[in-house]
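4.2 Preliminary Data

To establish feasibility before requesting continued support, the project team ran the inverse folding procedure on a target of 141 residues. The structure was first converted into the token representation described in Section 3, and no sequence information of any kind was made available to the design step. The complete token record follows.
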């Protein structure tokens, strides 16, 4: 159910990048393409627990780049180049800045929980409480 919801969310959000320039029928097609790609990436387990990587990866790359292909005024190669350059410039800038911030945090305080904390659950390590008393893992620390 979660994969389907993330796929639907991805399709809906993706269409907002180009909704002013495409018809409703084409918006449906653009959304379906993103939904299928998001579900495929989630099934490939290219993600963390909430499915943010496939949703944002598909939306961030496909949405802004799709509308020059489906524009009601016709394909515009120049606009496609501008959209693609902008999309990858933003992605590269965000990656470099976030990589630097995460490296700094990792050096100062660390980013990962210990293996024991991951198996036991961070609700115990961080809050000394059991957030899900009916849930039991098969692994023991």
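Position-by-position output of the design step:
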């Amino acid at each position: 159910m979660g994969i389907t919801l993330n796929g639907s969310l991805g399709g809906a959000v993706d269409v907002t990048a180009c909704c002013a320039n495409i018809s409703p029928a084409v918006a449906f097609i653009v959304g379906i393409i993103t939904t299928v790609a998001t579900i495929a990436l989630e099934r490939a387990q290219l993600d963390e627990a909430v499915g943010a990587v496939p949703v944002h990866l598909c939306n961030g790359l496909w949405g802004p780049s799709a509308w020059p292909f489906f524009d009601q005024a016709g394909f515009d190669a120049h606009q496609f180049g501008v959209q693609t350059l902008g999309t990858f410039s933003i992605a590269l800038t965000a990656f470099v800045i976030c990589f630097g911030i995460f490296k700094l945090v990792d050096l100062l305080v660390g980013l990962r929980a210990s293996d024991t904390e991951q198996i036991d659950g961070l609700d115990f390590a961080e809050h000394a409480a059991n957030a899900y008393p009916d849930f039991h893992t098969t692994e023991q620390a």
